[in-house]
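Protocol step 4 of 5: obtain the predicted structure for the target chain.
Materials: sequence only (see below). No template structures provided, no constraints applied. The aim of this step is simply to have a reference model before the mutagenesis design in step 5. Sequence pasted as it appears in the construct record:
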Amino acid sequence: MPEKVTPYKDSDLGKKEQVTKMFDTISKNYDGLNRVISFGIDIKWRKKVVELLKKENPQSILDIATGTGDLAIALVKTGAKKIVGLDISPGMLAVGKEKVTDKKLDSTIEMVVGDSENLLFEDNSFDAVTVSFGVRNFETLEKGMSEILRVLKPNGSLVVLETSVPTKTPYKQGYHFYTKNILPLIGKLFSKDNSAYGYLSESASVFPHGENFNNILREIGFIDVTNKPQTFGVASIYVAKKADASL
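Step 4 output (structure tokens):
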């Protein structure tokens, strides 16, 4: 089980409640800060997620930890008729809803408050499920991934975009310096929440990335699990399937 890291060290709240509070606090600045912190490369990573799913021709997609809806909006290009963006933070969703309305996508994208570990959808509801920079915020990773498997249709696809830690020199050293020193500093300068970006870098460092996460997915019941490192290994795209019920 992954090490549990929380945003606020001195809080009596559980991780789920702390994460909700944190994202509500930084929601207005989140998009701009993300572009600065990732140098805009996160847009390219999301495009790759869309390209991967487009080949599967999904008609219904659940985007978990949708945040301000960047991936949900990008997923329209897959041709899906129904996209549900789910997040635990009402503050992030409020920003996302404005973006969806501005782009006149309300008939395709529905933004809903929800808990990734207790999804209020029936079994076998979606052709695909995506999570972008969200699985490391799950309070219980295995429970969240089991819920995703449950709501996926047989032969449905899971695509996860998540930060990871480079393993090769000099990228490994550069990554550690940036996440420990630069990223929290940027967060403090531009965010009302001094803890948020320290937490985001710390949670990324302890997340079981690469083959460790692949193995968790396999243990839960996913098949055809692969991961594709991005940009020297600072992020990874994980792809997996739910088995066909007839097999």
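Step 4 remarks: Residues 19 and 52 are 29 Å apart (CA to CA). The chain has a mean pLDDT of 90.
Proceed to step 5.
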